[in-house]
Amino acid sequence: MYIGLDLGTSGLRALLADESGAIVATADAAYSVSNPHSGWSEQDPADWTAACEVVMAALKDAHPVEFSAVRGIGLSGHMHGATLLDAKGQVLRPCILWNDTRSAAQAAALNETPNVRCLSGNIVFPGFTAPKLKWVEENEPEIFAKVAKVLLPKDYLRYWLTGDYVGDMSDSAGTSWLDVGKREWSEELLDAGHMRLDQMPRLVEGSESSGNVRAQLLADWGMAGPVTVAGGGGDNAVAACGAGCFRDGDGFVSLGTSGVLLAAKNSFAPDPATAVHTFCHAVPDTWYQMGVILAATDSLNWLSGVLGRSPAELAGMLTDEPSGPSNTLFLPYLSGERTPHNDSAVRGSFAGLDVATTPEDMTQAVMEGVSFALRDNLDALKATGTKLSRILAIGGGTKSRFWLETLATTLNLPLDLPEKGDFGAALGAVRLAIAADTNADLSTIMTTPKVAATVEPRADLVDRYSESHARYRALYPHLKAALT
């Protein structure tokens, strides 16, 4: 038996599965995000370990026999977070999360440092880990002086599970400290950020073992042991493992809290100028390129809070089949934007509101705005030479048929929908745990899901959505100028 743990921004998801990857049970535990100042986003790492205790207890209570037979745990986590530990392994301050934008000035400075883009393969975004440490150095020097180790969020959970400081290639590729082509820490990149090699965890591939669960936890949980902990990876790379997306040309779109358009690559071919992320995959000798928008379903969640209606209620107002784009445009830059703008200061906007605008109109505009932002991502990926002929669609937003048809038509790509089941990061983590424990061939473990249905682009509406996307895209420079 195997467990996959997906450390998300709002909660921890756990899957208990057998050696074939078939899911036996699931458990979830929520925690909160702190926003003490505008642009700040933090979390207490103690909440992650407390959530892990909760989900483990739930799995054990529901399936005690299967739980006791667990042989491996895989980890997935939200990327770029800065968890700072002192020489005794104690947390020095709340973790600064991926969607925290306070270090924009530090990111810009690092981005202009010679060789940083070349070695890391990426623009230095404000959400990345390296500029966060520069911010701490400049604003909390007493804490910076005590930093003995920097761990990404899921690697702190690993430290609690195993007692070892270990990271993996895919998650570490989002720090701006990793030579992404060579898949190793770069002393030149670390020097640029005033960091040291001894402050970094040792690195393993996501499908390798990183150590075993501590004896005390095994006793507390009633596991026979030993239980290996796989290297795991950043959430999107691990979700790609769950979707069987690791061959060149495989791709998926995720309508989650953030939005992701990802394509697997069998070689390292970065193009930082496009603001496309080029990261190591969670499996050896593989990379991926990814466009990211910071607010996908989070945009609908925001509208839900403003209008006082649940996201499901808002989505239910719309028909299954769109009849064409709205006259109202929504730019989903609620926390700034990554691909293609690399702009932490821009903020969201509606354009074209009038006295007749209804909640239905606003909901449609939000779904279209997210789809247009993902079209920007597709255009950026194409600029790097990446080609996609069809993609798998996953994430909570895929529950809306209207959103799916809008997205397929905007991208002008067929969207394949997997059969019912969990094909996200938690399943990917299970698969990495199986790989780390058995050393089986990855192609036999990370199979693609059966396709339940395909949403085809609406040929009669492709041109109209393309025209509306052009109007959407033209608004960004004016919005940026208005906010400067």
From TrEMBL:
Question: Residues in the active site?
Answer: 235
> Which amino acid positions bind substrate, per UniProt?
79-80
Enzyme class (EC, first level): transferase
Q: Which Gene3D superfamilies match?
A: 3.30.420.40
The residues covered by the Carbohydrate kinase FGGY C-terminal domain are 252-436
Q: Which PROSITE patterns match?
A: FGGY_KINASES_2
Q: Where is the Carbohydrate kinase FGGY N-terminal domain?
A: 1-242
**Per its UniProt record, what InterPro entries does this chain match?**
ATPase_NBD, Carb_kinase_FGGY, Carb_kinase_FGGY_CS, FGGY_C, FGGY_Carb_Kinase, FGGY_N, Xylulokinase
Keywords in alphabetical order, please. Answer: ATP-binding, Carbohydrate metabolism, Kinase, Nucleotide-binding, Transferase, Xylose metabolism
**Entry EC no(s):** 2.7.1.17
Quote the NCBIfam families the UniProt record gives. XylB
Q: Which HAMAP family match?
A: XylB
Its annotated function is as follows:
Catalyzes the phosphorylation of D-xylulose to D-xylulose 5-phosphate.
Can you name this protein?
Xylulose kinase
Species the sequence originates in: Parasedimentitalea denitrificans
- Gene that encodes the chain: xylB
